[in-house]
């Protein structure tokens, strides 16, 4: 039914597991985080081979890129916590811990495998339902149709979760000094050049992904993720003004949620029900929602990144924002 | 073994390894990393099942769910790292044992 695994597939799967094992079980934080970047890229390649280009794209940008940036920042800046503190109880119980953990992992693997095997092949098929009804959605790409029409509640709540997480991270920072340019150092000239070259490319790609989403892989998620990554890059390149966390960004953060909720109320009051889009104008409304959601995802990711940064030269004992080597020496 | 079997098997092992590491490590940042690895496995399982339904045209519904999940995971990671940093700085100031040991 499906293609036999090629040597490349086996190599890819083996590498994925080996890198994951290193991420999870090697002692140092810094090693784990850097290998996590490799893990994200490998995961995206495997997913692309499962015919999921939308997801692979999002994983490459978000799982590898933005999460990687967050984690690297977390281990690189002002981390005084010891890497290898003694774990768990002392004495006789010490050897029990890995055995219990391993047993728990084995149980999870067995239960999951049994569940997968117990599912009927080909399982529940929603593909046909989506294909039969896609003409009513206003878009042509099935994933976009599911995200913004069939299951738009999911997307609405997801935008809400991102906004709440960003506000939560901002809340954790209330003890910090005022948001200012002092939070980042002047960028090295190579980074500055890179930012100058990449920014127009990112803007172009994000715009294309946003529009492409209605007919082919792409859409608000990938565009927003790419735009957010672009903002983070600009910020790290010394242009801290692009993320005016104090004022301008909170409206941008809430824009997607507000727009989405507005559409929900509009359709509930004047249309056929909550988020039921009429085919006559569904396409235009979906594009409009995608534009505001893209802006909010970009703003949310940028806020989460910036709010998680340690202020340079204030409470950190040593090490600049890019000083990963300092972590290894400790 | 087909490509699908391989993907499902890899996904299951990833989930199990991620959860095991989540249980075993006491370092807050590494717990967040472990959660990310486990969620990558869960998402891959979803994608594998979508692919199994019809390799020529994978099921778009699990794809949409995974796409949503990826964004949620980044949000959770960001908030988690913020909380972890806060916990560590508070523990340091008060001279308490590091958070990994305090909860035993």
TrEMBL record, chain A:
Domain named MrpA C-terminal/MbhD is located at 16-75
Membrane topology term reads: Multi-pass membrane protein
Q: Which residues cross the membrane?
A: 6-26, 33-50, 56-75, 95-119, 155-172, 193-213, 219-237, 249-269, 281-307
Residue span(s) of domain Na+/H+ antiporter MnhB subunit-related protein = 194-301
Give UniProt keywords alphabetically. Cell membrane, Membrane, Transmembrane, Transmembrane helix
Please name the InterPro entries in this protein's record. CPA3_antiporter_subunitB (IPR050622), MnhB (IPR007182), MrpA_C/MbhD (IPR025383), MrpA_C/MbhE (IPR046806)
* Subcellular location, record wording: Cell membrane
Matching entries from Pfam families are given as:
MbhD (PF13244), MbhE (PF20501), MnhB (PF04039)
Q: Name one GO cellular component term.
A: plasma membrane
MrpA C-terminal/MbhE domain spans which residues?
A: 112-178
The reply on keyword Cell cycle is no
Chief location of this protein within or outside the cell? membrane
The entry's family comment says: Belongs to the CPA3 antiporters (TC 2.A.63) subunit B family.
Protein name listed in UniProt: DUF4040 domain-containing protein
UniProtKB/TrEMBL annotation, chain B:
As for membrane topology, the entry says: Multi-pass membrane protein
A GO CC annotation given for this chain: plasma membrane
Keyword list (alphabetical) reads:
Cell membrane, Membrane, Transmembrane, Transmembrane helix
- Transmembrane residues, as ranges? 6-25, 32-51, 63-84
Q: Which domain of life is it from?
A: Bacteria
- Pfam families hit by this protein: Oxidored_q2
Q: Does the keyword Membrane apply?
A: yes
Transmembrane: is it a keyword of this entry? yes
Coiled-coil features, chain-numbered ranges: none
Q: Where in the cell is it found?
A: Cell membrane
Major localization listed first in the record, in broad terms:
membrane
Family of the protein in this entry: Belongs to the CPA3 antiporters (TC 2.A.63) subunit C family.
The UniProt entry, under PANTHER family, shows:
ANTIPORTER SUBUNIT MNHC2-RELATED
Q: What is this protein called?
A: Na+/H+ antiporter subunit C
Species, as recorded: Phytoactinopolyspora mesophila
Upper classification of the source organism reads: Bacteria, Bacillati, Actinomycetota, Actinomycetes, Jiangellales
